[in-house]
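Progress report, Aim 2. The chain analyzed during this reporting quarter is listed below.
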Amino acid sequence: MNRFVKPRVVVSRCIGFERCRYNGQIISSDEVKEMRDHVDFLTVCPESDIGLGVPRDPVRLVFNGEKRRLVQPNTGKDFTKNMVDYSEDFLTQNPDVDGFILKSKSPSCGLKETRIYTGIDDHSTRGKGPGFFGNEVLTRRPRKAIETEGRLRNYQIREHFLTKIYAFADFRDRKGSQDLKKLKEFHDHNRLLFKSYDEELYQKMDDVLEQNEDVSELYDRYEDLLYELFNQAPQCESKIQIMDGLFQDFKDMIDKDEIAFFKESLEDYKKGNTSLDVPLSILYTWLLRFKDANLKDQSFFFPYPKDLVRLEDVRTCISRDYWNF
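Predicted structure tokens for the chain:
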């Protein structure tokens, strides 16, 4: 069974950890709750951490055409410099994190849906965008796994996020060793998963490992490609191609009813009528039956701990446009 390194994830403190919202409330998130035993969380509440109380007068983003500011309408105070300094210091002091789960729509932690006002007392808005801390995360850590608690309720986004943080954590752990053998093991362990994301990039990663270079340089070059690989979620068709390729290795060893059942499960998955777990489970039973040790531990089957898999989810595909902030 797969070995999992615990990811390090920064999470907004108000999402299930502390009543630190402006109104003293706490946000419930089943997704974050499920991860708590499997992830090393580092909590953050930029507004309370810069000295604002709980409860507190709300702050808002204001843009007057020249620069964005973080202001508190009820008091007239400007906390822009405090928040910028805090955000920069926090990210500088915590470089080795694998992902972020931030509070949506927050003037500090929001990623894309925070309201931007035209003035400190004006109720008019001029669009939406990231909060100050969220913007700093997107600017300084754009290649990490970054999501809001709301978007993680979507299965496809949650699956992509979990797959990324566990791959990043495993790579981070191996990179710390500067052991070329461990890098090659990582590459082989994720072979099918990486191909399902982008076969061309997988081949480039494969080529990197053939170069006669300093190990540190190999890790750095490989890491750049790893982040590029995970920049987009895989499409259904690429997963089906991987599964169909595995099926070809077994089709002469199984009977026609099993073949028909597997093909039907692939078609149902493609149409969105069943979970990806159905064809995957069929394939995995064949791996166990025919004792294919080279494949049964591939991360394609178990990209993250099974305790984080929700059996009620139907893993269908959504537009690539939905993934981007």
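Residues 166-325 form one domain. The longest strand covers residues 8-12. These observations will guide the mutagenesis work planned for the next reporting period.
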